Amino acid sequence: MGSVTHLRYVGMAVPDYDTAVNFYRGVWGLSVAETDSGLAFLAAEASPEPYVYRIRQAEDGQRRLDVVGFSASDRTSVDELAAELGSAGIRLVSEPDSLTTPGGGYGFRFFDPDGRVVEVAAEVAERPCRQLEEREAIPLGLSHVVFNTTQRQVLESFDRDRLGFRLSDWLGDGFMSFWRCDAAHHSVAMMQMPFTSVNHVAFEVASIDDMLRASGRVLGDGRAKPQWGPGRHSAGDNTFYYFFDPVGNVSEYTSDVQRVPEDWQPRQHTTPDVWQVVPIPDFRGQPDAPPEQLPQSDPGLFVAPPV
Ligand SMILES: [Fe+2]
């Protein structure tokens, strides 16, 4: 079975491209690796991935997920996975081919059961990266992406049986589950919700100190509104601080993400936050969020982005 080997990037289409790019390249701490008109590929200074976050101007002004990118170990795995998904009736967005995005490589795209566009690629060229300075407090790389879904069990089965993810832990009755594709406790998590969208995208920083320094920088900047934090999650043992970015997406700084052994036994957790120094927000409501940030299903489901 073809399996994914790590999370590479998340691509978002946004109503205000300049606002989003200026925020992520500025105070959030990513670097612009390459731009095209209305399309920016943002890299993390310490990561060899050619880009970890992609921002595109939404032609209709509607915020949406464009694509989630994973890597596979080699070209054969890409071909095998595409063939397996195709024969299982999964709609491919593109057949395996050379990629023209930064880093090139060989990959294909498909719609997952919720209609998200997922890319799996191999042989993507690495980008020169550097060791961060102590207390530089900018992202080391992309950590994980969390999906809101109305059919969590369907998505879980798909990611486990088709993409090779393994369950790491779950919360409560299982309304949220955490899945890994490498040693990191989770690269993907799923939350049962009345709508289907991206819950948040998380960027890992080097330490708890960096998590707070980075969050303080963002709070001082004022363009992003804090959502939840600081705290430490039970599942994954990682620290967190969540923000609504200036275009309404939720991004997280995290540190200390647990690395788990091969024989890790999944277990249940009862609270999402072991510190509990701040109250847990009501994610189903967000009553004080601006209208464009209110929970709703992603308008990009089963729509392939132009790039
Ligand atoms: Fe997270």
Question: Would you write up a description of this structure?
Answer:
15% of the residues lie in helices and 36% in strands. By secondary structure, it is of the alpha/beta class. Strands 14-15-16-13-9-12-11-10-17 form a 9-stranded mixed beta sheet. Strands 2-3-4-1-5-8-7-6 form an 8-stranded mixed beta sheet, covered by helices on one side. Strand 7 and strand 8 form a beta hairpin. The chain is globular and about 50 Å long. The model has no long low-confidence stretch (mean pLDDT 94). It binds fe (ii) ion (FE2). The site of fe (ii) ion has 7 residues, from strand 9, strand 13 and strand 16.
How would you describe the shape? Answer: globular
Low-pLDDT regions: none
Along the chain, the helix and strand elements come as: EHEEEEHEEEEHEEEEHEEEE
Q: What kind of sheet is the major sheet?
A: 9 strands, mixed
Mean pLDDT: 94
Instruction: Please name the CATH topology of the largest domain.
Output: 2,3-Dihydroxybiphenyl 1,2-Dioxygenase, domain 1
Strand order of the largest sheet: 14-15-16-13-9-12-11-10-17
CATH architecture title of the largest domain: Roll
What is the strand tally? 17
Radius of gyration: 18 Å
Strand content: 35-45%
Bound molecules: fe (ii) ion
Q: Give the helix proportion (percent range).
A: 10-25%
Q: From the helix content, strand content and strand pairing, which structural class follows?
A: alpha/beta
Termini gap: 28 Å
CATH superfamily of the largest domain: 2,3-Dihydroxybiphenyl 1,2-Dioxygenase, domain 1
User: In the CATH hierarchy, what is the class of the largest domain?
Assistant: Alpha Beta
